[in-house]
Amino acid sequence: MTPTTLTSEISNWPHAAKLAGALATLARHSVSGGDTVDMLSRLARQCVDVLPIAAAGILITDQFSALKVIGSSSDAAHLLDLYQVQNEQGPCLECLQSGKPVSLDDLSAPDAPWPHFRVAAVREGFSSVYALPLAAEDTVVGALNLFARHPLSEQDLIGAQSLADAATMTLLRADPTEDGLVVARRLHDAVETRNGVEQAKGMIAQRYDLDIAAAFQLLVDVAEEAGKSVSEVARYVTLRVSDPVLDTLFLRQRS
């Protein structure tokens, strides 16, 4: 689909203005060399703001072609994406294998695929799920997973694909022709950074007696108030370094 066709398809879409704002914000962060994990986590949250969905997650392949959860809008999305990876079933696995979008409007349909994943998704309050490939030319680097409480329209999915394409360009630094080893290294670094964020979430949860979702929100809030990326604050937490500003912000956010 050409840019002109895309513009025509979503020009009357109710969420078009929000989509333009989200893409502009992502472009600014990407050009400024922002942290990849921070940008993709932000993008997952923006998907919820732009699209009529309840949650979103972003998964990428590492240098060994293993699927990893790299960004999510909520703890529920994160857990469901982990479930797909660990049990090797779900829309993202199918999307990654085929390189094509995967849609399931009704998770309760008796003949629908991924029975165990569907049960877990319905338990979290979702009724529809979609997976869109993060791909440029012949390079497929992951998938954008969308969880909804109502089926999405064709316009919704076109807008969602724009966000998936933006995630792809963030990962590939707008150059899908880069040497494969360079791309693999960048993906590996993103996965390692995400692992650090997960470790920080656990430490914050234990330190402040919070559940994981609340711990992640505290991490995000402190990062935004400090003007730092989530991964920067996560390193501060995991390395147990002293930073008077961040120490104060954590205490203020918890008071």
Please characterize this protein's 3D structure.
The structure is a single chain. This protein is of the alpha+beta class. It has 2 domains: 3-176, Beta-Lactamase; 193-254, Arc Repressor Mutant, subunit A (Orthogonal Bundle). Helices cover 60% and strands 14% of the residues. It has 11 helices and 5 strands, in the order H-H-H-E-E-H-H-E-H-E-E-H-H-H-H-H. It has helices spanning 3-10, 16-31, 36-50, 75-87, 91-98, 115-123, 154-172, 180-208, 212-226, 230-239, 244-254; strands at 55-61, 67-72, 102-104, 128-136, 139-148. It has a 5-stranded antiparallel sheet. Strand 1 and strand 2 (67-72) form a beta hairpin. Helix 3 (36-50) runs antiparallel to helix 7 (154-172). The radius of gyration is 18 Å and the shape is globular. The N and C termini lie far apart (50 Å).
What layout of secondary structure does this protein have?
Layout: H1 3-10, H2 16-31, H3 36-50, E1 55-61, E2 67-72, H4 75-87, H5 91-98, E3 102-104, H6 115-123, E4 128-136, E5 139-148, H7 154-172, H8 180-208, H9 212-226, H10 230-239, H11 244-254
Antiparallel strand pairs: 1-2, 1-5, 3-4, 4-5
Order of neighbouring strands in the sheet with most strands: 2-1-5-4-3
Rg is 18 Å
DSSP, total strands = 5
What fraction strand?
A: 5-15%
Residue windows where pLDDT falls under 50 for at least 5 positions = 1-8
Which architecture of the largest domain per CATH? 2-Layer Sandwich
Instruction: Indicate the CATH topology of the largest domain.
Output: Beta-Lactamase
Q: How many domains comprise the coordinates? A: 2
Outline type:
globular
Would you list the SSEs in sequence order as H and E?
Answer: HHHEEHHEHEEHHHHH
- Please state the average pLDDT score: 80
The CATH superfamily label of the largest domain reads GAF domain
Work out the helix count.
11
**Helix-strand category:** alpha+beta
- Cα distance, first to last residue? 50 Å
